[in-house]
């Protein structure tokens, strides 16, 4: 179940995704929030802008949290990560090892690199996954806005299919 407050943070994640698309990179945004509903960090996909394959939105938010993420991990504080897209395996690993306790995303990515649900289903990190509340696709309107960003991304010159057909070596 999501709250109106959750919807505000999901909207913020979507705004980060829109900025990523404007910067010609994959449209994913993330917001990290503490248990008092303070925004600790924001992140967006920067793969193309930073020329860094690990510069995903969720990782960007975790990195941007700096010392706050260590304090939360050590003192078992409840952080929530809001993402506009289901976290990939790398981002899921970041979530698990940062001990984030709640994850909410707008759009499942089972046809792409979405890995949160697949990793959870594999039961390899049961202990870590069992302490996380995960909420997928809680808002149809915001989910549809993320879907539209994904459709726009398919037309972007930095989309992998366009880069491959152009014979780019920067992929």
From TrEMBL:
Keywords: Metal-binding, Zinc. Coiled coil: none annotated. InterPro entries: APOBEC/CMP_deaminase_Zn-bd, CMP_dCMP_dom, Cytidine_deaminase-like. Pfam families: dCMP_cyt_deam_1. PROSITE patterns: CYT_DCMP_DEAMINASES_1, CYT_DCMP_DEAMINASES_2. This is Nucleoside deaminase. SUPFAM superfamilies: Cytidine deaminase-like (SSF53927). Residues 4-116 form the CMP/dCMP-type deaminase domain.
